[in-house]
Every structure is written in C-alpha cells, then in structure tokens.
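HUMAN: You are asked to prepare a plain-text protein record giving the amino acid sequence and the backbone structure tokens, both parts labelled.

ASSISTANT:
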Amino acid sequence: MGDSILGVKDLAAARAVLRREADALRTLGESIDGSFTAAVDLLWRVRGRVVVSGMGKSGHVGRKFAATLASTGTPALFVHPSEASHGDLGMVAHEDAVVILTNSGETPELNDLVGYARRTGIPLITISGQAKASQTQAADVALVLPDVEEADPMGLAPTTSTAMMMALGDALAMALLERRGFSADDFHALHPGGRLGRKLIKVADIMHTGANLPLIGVEARMSDVLIEMSSKSFGCVGIADAQGLLLGIVTDGDLRRHMSDDLLTRRAGDIMTATPKTIRPGALAADALRQMNSSAITNLFVVDEKGIAGLLHIHDLLRAGVL
C-alpha cells in the first residue's frame, strides 16, 4: 500500500513538472520577437565560429547548444568561463561571435569573457532571464526568457529556465540550418557514425559495381546464366541489352519455376522476370530495405539514367547496420 501511495505521488509530481515546463515553452514561443531574428542575422554573418559559454546548469545547456550548432552546419565550440579567464580567451578569434547563457544576467565568472568581447569588438549575444542585468545590457543582441517560475516546489532549482534555454538554442540552430539549406547529405557528412549515420547511408555507398555485378545478355543460354550466377554468389543475374539497360532478372526462384530437362539450353530472355524491382543510387539504404521487405526479395539492381549502376544485397544492409 505504501509503495502504491508513493508511486501515485511520484507520477503527480512528474506530471506537474512537465506541465509547468510545457507551459513555459508555450510562453517562450509567444514571446520571441525581432530580437530572435537579429540573433539569427548576427550568427548568419559570422565568418568564424560561434563561441558558447555559461556557468553551472546554463553551461550544460550551452555545451548542448554548441554541439547542436556544430552538427547542423554552424561551426561552434563551448568555452568554460573559468577556463576563459585562465588562458582560453585565446580560443576566441576576431571573426567569431560569443553567446553567453546566464539566467541571472550577473554571473561573475562570465565577466572576463564579456569584457573581452566588448574590448575587441566581437559580437555578443546574451540569453538570460533578466532584461536589466548588466550582462544582458552589454550584449549586441539580448534574448530574454519570460519570467516563469521554476518547476520545483521551492521555485529554486533550474528547471523551466533551463528548458527554455535549451529550446531557444534549438530554435536558433534550426533557423540557421534552414537559412543554410542544410540537407540530409550535409547531415550525413557530419554524422558518419552511430545510428544517425546508418539511417542516412545511401544505396550508392554500399552497392556492388563494375566487374562484381552478375550480368549477362538476353540471348545467353541458361547454362551460362548458371555459371555467372554461381561465380558472383548473389543468387541472381541481371539480364541486360547491348546498351547496358536492365531488361530483367533471373533468380533462384525463377530457376525452380522453370525447372525442366531443357532448362540449360533455353535463353535467358525466356526465363527472366521482366521489369524487376530496382532502386536509384541516391536513395537511402533504409528505403531499399523497406522495398526488399515489402516485395519479399533479397536483391535490388540499382539503375540510373545511364543504365545499370550496381546491385544491392540484403547482406550489404546487414553489414552497414541498416537492419
């Protein structure tokens, strides 16, 4: 019974926090104005990097903001304010911009970085919760968070304030992403590893090409088709015309369906499945997997406007981690 009561209280507390933070984000969305556009304009014009800094919980949010910028096409790094005061100001160059995150707008550890930006003419953006604070007033562009209570019962622990900072950083990064026309190809180039990278692998990245392709002419005898199929070990052979266009495919299943005493003397064109399933080189490997699953096949020939470009086997998808 006791555990049950505690569980109910836990869920109630969790839902209350999430409601407060959701309300805070709605309020933030309604409050953004021309200052947000000015911040995007400033960051868009930066020829160097965006240097992000913050202390405590704001610093943790700042690290994530810098990482999101960097992974979506805006060069960025995080500099710890205390380290900045002990030599890391040298990491801030004249073509950079500085973004500081501070709920109070009066974080002492940020003063050296703010002062350096002002002395050297480096653009400064402040994300804070206090419009009249000194570090907010020092900024070229100030993004001020709405005055919303924190979500904890005492109203002290950084919760709604950090949630709004995080969301505002994401909003800045995504606005810059759209201005840059950042594409899935760009994203893949910056995320070659891990699950995101695997999701963005293209067919052209893993397909078989050239001499590895099992191909034969439409007039070839089935005895030669079997030799080609066995030597390439894909369980299929593509049937091509003189121009290299794919006319059909002969698979293990086709062999079983046409099994007869005269099979080896028949032509490839008599046995092949015409107009087989194909895919483009630029398609995502994940799309190839869906097509294989929906059609219950294990191979896809890859074709472009010039003809046969390659072959993809389901084992290639397995090795690439797409499955």
User: Anything to note?
Assistant: The two ends are 45 Å apart (CA to CA).
